[in-house]
Design a protein that fits this description.
With 447 residues, the chain is α/β, with parallel strands linked by helices. It is built from 13 helices and 17 strands. The structure holds dihydroflavine-adenine dinucleotide and NADP nicotinamide-adenine-dinucleotide phosphate. Pfam families: Lys_Orn_oxgnase.
Length: 447
């Protein structure tokens, strides 16, 4: 045994990198495969750098709700009778009846987090927490073919181990993005680190705070700061004229259906472009209507009272910032008239979004050259979510995330994780069966 907590000589069928909802759904799909085909066990293990399970913990703000139905959980769209469903969780928590009485499709993020923790607790033998995968390298298998992958894992104590696998499933999640040239600091945070950084501050020292962005994160944090710091001036720096609503109406929502993946994947370039042109506003730079109304209500109440501490600076982008000890100077560029002004704040939150998962970060330049890219330089990906190899590699690098350009808008979301994980599990099983058949035929013909 070593850092990974696993016998190091074992060759896994698949090693999962990251244990967020996507790879949890894969772990469950593999477990359920084993239950139905015990003669074909799939050897798998997952590595998660957090010390315990957590799903965007720093954004678990009070009253925030899920942006998908509770039925888009880890399993239901793939296996409605799975013991890992949200409904099973409610039943186990003795809350199913009350949940139904509440008549709400969209649980709080707090409750969904409880659900994910509940599911993770039953999967604890499949994951090692406090372990970060730092590199993936190809190695030859017994036949001298490049059919295996060495996965380098660093434990919380800094020690490094290597595990070997036929496939990896990279599911390392979104990468926080700050505007070019800006850096985080003691009182300058990206939204992904918000709660833990905020909770370290004495509230009375936060008299003047600002939130950058016009997406869901920005609106939720602005509302939270306004409600939590009744003495503070709160500025919302919006690149748009006002917050735009997230389109979650039924026809538009169909773009997240499992079938839409095929239509996107096999569609023409023009069809894929239409998905984005017409439906980007289902997810990016948009806000749920209830949060928009909650913010407007607060602003209107201030007008009625005749006192204002909630300031919306619209058509404004942050041009640069200067760290001044605990304070920050924020240079604001007006898109309306091109003028610049600055404000000085005690805390600045960049709710400026995320970049997608990029597998090259883990593969490294040398190994990454083995995989094909399209004309725009993006990785080519098979329908079953594997990177397309340019060489004779027979090992598989599966992606859960980072496939918006090939599989569509649900790539970075929860909507399709149950079905996608089932497809990846099936693909791993099928490829292994084919390889075993090929080996058997070879052995037979050699006799
Ligand atoms: P996720 O980011 O959840 O998990 C990745 C895991 O990999 C993390 O636990 C990380 O620690 C780990 N990791 C990273 N690098 C590693 C390494 N090198 N080694 C080991 N571990 C590593 N979508 C939706 O459909 N409905 C919703 O309601 C929401 N809500 C929402 C709220 C907020 C605040 C954000 C920022 C995003 C959402 N999303 C969402 C979108 C979000 O991408 C989605 O909910 C899931 O987090 C996707 O799950 P993944 O497992 O793919 O990534
Ligand atoms: P986002 O939707 O990408 O929004 C980022 C915002 O920052 C955009 O308005 C962007 O404007 C703005 N921005 C970027 N640079 C700027 C600058 N220099 N000055 C001013 N504004 C700037 O990111 P997000 O809100 O973090 O959402 C990311 C994902 O998480 C989405 O899927 C969202 O639905 C999800 N989420 C869900 C919940 C929930 O479930 N309750 C909560 C939070 C987030 P431009 O558009 O002009 O670039």
């Amino acid at each position: 045994m070593d850092t990974t907590g696993r016998p190091s000589e074992e060759i896994y069928d698949v090693v999962g990198i990251g244990f967020g909802p996507s790879n949890m759904a894969l772990a469950i799909a593999l477990e359920e495969h084993e239950a139905t085909s015990p003669e074909q066990p799939i050897r798998s293990h997952f590595f998660e750098r957090q010390l315990m399970f957590g799903w965007h913990r720093n954004m678990l703000l009070p009253s925030t709700t899920m942006q998908i139905s509770f039925l888009k959980d880890l399993v239901t769209f793939r296996n409605p009778v799975s013991r890992y469903s949200f409904i099973s969780f409610l039943h186990a928590s003795d809350r199913l009846v009350q949940f139904v009485n509440n008549q709400d499709f969209y649980p709080t993020r707090h409750e969904f987090h409880q659900y994910l923790e509940w599911a993770a607790s039953s999967l604890s033998d499949r994951v090692t927490y406090g372990t970060e995968v730092t590199a993936i390298r190809p190695v030859a298998d017994a036949d001298g073919q490049p059919g295996l992958l060495d996965v380098e894992v660093r434990g919380a104590d800094g020690t490094t181990s290597v595990v070997t696998a036929r496939n990896v499933a990279i599911s390392t999640g979104l990468v926080p993005r700050l505007p070019d040239g800006m850096s985080a600091g003691a009182r300058v945070w990206h939204s992904s680190e918000f709660l833990s950084r905020y909770q370290q501050q004495p509230p009375h020292e936060l008299r003047n705070v600002a939130v950058v962005g016009a997406g869901q994160s920005a609106a939720e944090i602005t509302r939270f700061l306004y409600d939590s710091l009744p003495h503070a001036e709160v500025s919302a720096i919006l690149p748009s004229y006002g917050y735009s609503v997230a389109d979650d109406t039924p026809f538009a929502n169909q773009i997240f259906d499992p079938n839409a993946v095929d239509e996107y994947y096999f569609g023409t370039e023009r069809a894929r472009d239409s998905f984005w042109r017409y439906h980007r506003n289902t997810n990016y730079s948009v806000v749920d209507a209830d949060v928009i109304r909650a913010l407007y209500q607060r602003s209107y109440d201030e007008q009625v009272r005749g006192s204002q501490r909630l300031h919306f600076r619209n058509l404004t982008r942050v041009a640069e910032i200067e760290h001044l000890g605990d304070a920050t100077k924020v240079v604001l560029h007006s898109v309306l008239d091109g003028t610049q002004e600055h404000i000085v704040v005690d805390a600045l939150v960049f709710a400026t979004g995320y970049d997608g998962l990029d597998p090259a970060r883990l593969l490294g330049d040398d190994f990454d050259r083995n995989f094909k890219r399209d004309e725009s330089g993006r990785h080519q990906v098979t329908r079953d979510y594997r990177l397309v190899t340019a060489t004779g590699l027979t090992c598989g690098v599966y992606l859960q995330g980072g496939t918006e350009h090939t599989h569509g808008l649900s790539s970075a979301l929860l909507s399709n994780i149950a079905v996608r994980s089932g497809e990846i599990a099936d693909s791993i099983v099928l490829r292994r069966t084919r390889a075993e058949l090929a080996d058997a035929q070879l052995a037979h013909s050699a006799v």
